[in-house]
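Researcher: I'm comparing several assemblies side by side, and this is the next one on my list. It has 1286 residues spread over two chains. Same procedure as the others: predict the full complex and return the structure.
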Amino acid sequence: MRPARYILFFAMMLFSGSCITEFIPETNENADMLVVEGLITNKAGNNTVKLSKALSLSSKTTGTPYTRCSVIITDDLGNMTPLYEKSNGLYVTDSAFAGVVGREYKLTIRTNNSGASNYTYESVPVKMVPVPPVDTIYYEKQQYNPGSDAFIREGCQVWFDSHDPDNKCHFYRWDYSETWMFQLPYYVPNNICWISANSNVINIKNASILTENRITGYPLIFISPESDRLSIKYSLLLNQYSISEDEFEYWEKLKTITDEVGSLYDVTPSFIPGNVTCIEDPTQDVLGYFSVSAVSSKRMYISGRFRGLAYLYSQCPSDTVNDLNAVADLNWKRWVIESDELVVPPIYILTRIKGCADCTVRGTKDKPLWWDDSK
Amino acid sequence: MRAKLKILFIFLALFYASAAEAQQNIQIGWDYSGMSFTAFAAKAESQDSLRFFYMDEWVSDIRLGEFKGPVLLSDLLDVLFRNKSLFYYIDDSGNVIITMNFAIKITGSEASPGLNFIPSSNYSDQDNQKTSASAYINIGNPADRNKPGNAILTGYITSSDTKEPVAGVTVFNQRLSSGTISNQYGYYSLSMPRGSHQLQFTFVGMKEKMVNINLNGPGEMNIDMNSTLIPLKETVVSADRNLVLKRYEVGAEKINITSFRLLPTSMGESDIIKSVLLLPGVQTVGEGSAGFNVRGGSADQNLILMDGSPLYNTSHFFGFFSAVNSDIIKDVTLYKGGIPSRFGGRISSILDISTREGNLKQFKGNAGISPITTHFVVEGPIKKDTSSFIITARTTYSNWIFKLIDDPDLKKSRAFFYDINAKYTYDINRNNKLDFSGYLSHDSFRFSSDTVYSYDNSILIARWRHFFSSRFLSLVTLNNSNYRYDVSGESGTTEAFILSHRINSTGLKADFNYFLGRNEINFGTDLTWYGVIPGSYKPASDSSIVKSETLAKERALEAALYIDDKFVLNEYVSLNAGIRFSSFFAFGPETLLLYDPEFTKSRSSVTDSVSYSAGHISKLYGGPEFRFSMNFKLSNSSSLKINYNRTRQYLHLLSNSASIAPTDTWKLCDYYLKPQTGDQYALGFYQMLHSRSVEASAEIYYKSIHNMVDYKGGTSLVMNDNIEQSLVDVEGKAYGLELMIKKPEGRVRWSLGYTFSRTFLRSTGKFNDEIINKGKWFPANFDRPNDLVVTFNYLLSRRFSFSTNYTWSTGRPITYPVSSYYTNDIYIIYYSERNKYRIPDYSRLDMSFRFSGSLRSHKLANPNWTFSVFNLLGRQNVYSEYFNNINNKVVGYKLSVFGKAIPSVTLSFDF
């Protein structure tokens, strides 16, 4: 519906002189706002509030955790549930706690900075709305042609359908977690691993503009053959959330300033306020959202055969030596990916990239408990 | 019979009569009650051995009054010809010679054939100006010559080719250093002491004309002006020598159409908006963006009028081309300040476009092609000298470009536009003129095979010009302007939709223009009825489950009354003071939400709702708008002007992007959305240099704007039913200095303009989400402090012309990211202070060369070639900078729309 970026293409082609050049923006403003990632669901054990500080543009870390805060969830009956800091900046409820559909929840945060000034942050109360189950998740092979080579490559488009016969959930949000099995092409001890990734795009839908509360063919993800997700077996867990209209708007606005850039008609970017504010200093920008939502989940597996998948380990630089002591000066920064010690002299094929010799660099050897070999 | 006598006879008679003394004591002693003039003349010829020389159409509406006894023929004719531009001369032989517009003066002592030459009333073939300059034309009754005080000369100036009135002609009296400019009807009025004067009529694209007059008393003199033979279709207009000194307003810019047509083009299309951008004080957010910014105003604060009717979308291709075909343009004036009180409804500027009228004499046409479009003009008389038509049309055939593209998505894209103008003009008689015109523009785009955009403008106009007398005229305009867009998407899915928006306005305008001595009084009324459908979202197919939703229609009446007086106080001071009282009535049915004043307006702070039924006024706004200008003549070649004007605007374009986007919607003021008001104070100094061929000006202005709106971050304005929840109140201030020096005429024409200007905005809300940049002043999107424009035209010969222009300006402000964060594993960029950084400076050089295939203007299929290079230096001017998350790292991108030099060729033929 927003073809703004196509307009750019129009300009490009019409004038065949449009161009885009990259640069690294440099700003040296100090902005370490509080980031709240709160999610209270109707499932026990899943209820966390993550507090961190925003990153400066030049920083390479993944966010500074905001530690030693007291975090409390209060429902509309006055029940208070304190959260404890499980790890740095990650506050969780008691594993028995689960939100109840129909109840309203409010988040209160009190910082405990030694010496520095402390603030209280509070969210608006959010009501938990029921969510229907996901109907089906399905996929289809799709030709993928990033360049002009004629080599046929196949990616995988995943869609899902959902509907709410009770028409109670008007605003949906989805996230998903991908897990896939991969194998190194060498006979090394850590040869088969599992790796996971979480969705990092905003998936939302407003069903209130539909006559039927039915989502058909929502395009969830396109799995490119350039990853190794499809090489052996792939699994996706889809979580469906029923969010409030306010939260829907919050995500929609974020999506606007995040995704819809690069055209001639960009929305002026700005701060998108969430539902948490600072009590003492309301002018503070508080990032993130305290989300209260029922959740339903569905898992699917793909172990089909795809053509033209990229072979990630084809680029492992390797060398063959006959004596490991001869390369001792590599200071053990070399790994054997193949060896034949029965011949004389013995043959060792070495690599200097650990990931080529050990799958645990990217993943874990532990098969997830839920992994179903039969599917 | 003798009515058929031609002018030639009159000349013969004059020479024949010239030696004789005028004889004016012939008495008429018979009853002529109620006779027509022709019958009277016939009887007088038989009874009194007189001979009358005149043309039938001059006297067709004259009837004689009641006979009350013998009268002198001269007294009788004085009465009959009063308030008409008829004059008579009676010689000794009883020849009564009646002339139109000019009186005959015969002075025996000066009698010589050369001096007695009376130019024809058309002045059509004066190649020798010396001759015409040495002939004196008597104006008024010679008997009044020795009366005290000034006398007023009035008249109409028309183009001899097309018979269209010519506005903006300078009528100048060198000796007195005083003058005037013809108004939009070609009417001029000049007060001078009685006696002999030499008047100069000048106008770019027209031959200069010198006329000697003996001003005896009030009188009328109509002038036809010939166009010069530059091989360009130029009927028209420019700011003229002296004009800049004479105008009252500070900041009114008449576009020189001749130079406009010489300007380099971007894709072979002359574009009026692009030439407006070359004026000091006018800026744009970037190339390829619709709209322009005048003296710190946003793009929706400009009213674009086509023959008095508003045009709601002014661009094709989302801003790459102007929606107004340059073939139809007769005359363009941009009022960036000193807005006359007859205009209103927008606070920053009025772009007043007059369209051409068809040629009353002969059929003519022109057709042309450029890389993107093809266009044609046809015009001609329907009844010669009485009614005419003109049709212009333009369409694109750009789709071939898409087919050449490798990308499969783009291959399926299509873009198309056309526009058509048509006008019918009917001169009912001398005092009444009607015209009907229509305009239609259409754009459609299909992106890939999914989303289709289309938008349409349509305008219908009927105008009636009526002259109550030569000094009191009126123009009544009835118009309807409609704009709509449709966006359809997700076709073939269960969520296929069509999103539409529509604005329709019907306007009735009556403008009256009354010349009274040293006053020119303008008054009138301006009524506009609006109907706006903010948005509708409907299923596009039977299988679509999209819920059909239409936002409540908005209805309102904007009504204004105005009066102003241009008053010449004395030789040095003239002023123009006016008031426009505008009002706005929003009508129901409407449901209004009420909010808790303790909280920001949002869904959760709604406390109640109020409903208004159909026909009830839900909100009323109104107020006076004062307009005042004063012109001090400092010397014969310099003047100083001061100006104040207030403007009010009841219509907003909702747009949260830097430039006007295709899905922006018009919104009427309502209970929450208050009318924008602007106050502008300006001071200008104007100096003519180099024997008046070069004009220099300096203008400064300060402007404050109230009730502007901005939007809460990231808000979607499409299908937004309670827009007040998304609005942020903003006020603005702008100031600037505009320096200009130019030589607008001659073979070599040039201009150099520099503008320093700043525009700041400040949010005035009290809640956190209504505050931008902590409530401090921040630069507006179009705040570009330095702006330099140089243009140069060289008309090498009648067949060749060369034109170039150079623009340099400061880059526009932009919002930069300051930090980033993760939320739910999604990497989000945090933007802080609005418009704190700037994109790089803008610099562009364009050049064009025109070549006419033949000098003979009437040769069939006379080809004109235009070779143009846009952005000759190939500079990659940055249009915008944006930021994206690439592997969880903020990467900035600089986008240039025109990354290299773009050549184009346009070919057109006259036929």
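Model: For your comparison table: Chain A touches chain B through 80 residues (CB under 8 Å).
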